[in-house]
DUF4382 domain-containing protein (Candidatus Kutchimonas denitrificans), 267 residues
Amino acid sequence: MGTNGIGAGALARAGGMLLAVVTGLLVGCSDATGPGGTEAVSLSFGLSGGSASPAPGLFAAELQLSDGTNTLVVQSAELVLRELELEKIETAGCDSEPSDDNCEEFEIGPFLVSLPLDGSTSQTITAQVDPGIYDEIEFDIHKPEDNTAGDLDFIAANPNFADISIRVTGTYNGQSFLYTSDLNEEQEIELTSPLTVGSEPTNVTLTIDISTWFASTSGALIDPRTANKGEPNEQLVKNNIRLSIEGFRDDDHDGMPHDDDPDESIS
């Protein structure tokens, strides 16, 4: 069973489909590489909770959720992100200035993340990061608009995302749906345990529990069309999305917290 009372079975993706697509320039705050004292840190995306339980023997590029009465099938789920940064422990936050020593930037963006629906993760971004202890990831869920060159270039390459930051397609009780959101705000995700960047490469995974997105406070599934802009469940689903993301060290890319070291740090 998934979280919030939702029964979930993630159906495995066939044919070696691409699991996540990220477009944009991959950068680090510092131009230094290994010899300059930095270490490689990669960032992956995946599903969690009820969204991340594959259904054995089933091979389809879909995620199927049920509450016992209603059935929701997610066929694609995409998000636009930008300004993704790791924040050092006990700092006041990232400020987007190049001289900010408290944060390490992975990606300026905007860039598109297509979430894997088969319970796996995909490595998408790698950056050189200064040694230190990091306890938070900051990024924007971003609605591309026609006010910057970066947004205009992104919209030209992804025309379905003009003024849209999240796009989900699928079926609800057999009826096709398209859910879109203009959620546009900074997200601060505290790592489950502080991450120490030291003498070896590591990976951090951001997981998203889609099984909670289209759920009422009682756990019953709702029609995603009732959460589109101006519809009665718009704010409910936006809040569900905000609460569905977590981050942790995940060196083996299995979508689970790294368990070789109880504090998930690198010695």
About this structure: The radius of gyration is 18 Å. Residues 3-249 form one domain. The first strand starts at residue 7 and ends at 12. The chain has one domain: 3-249.
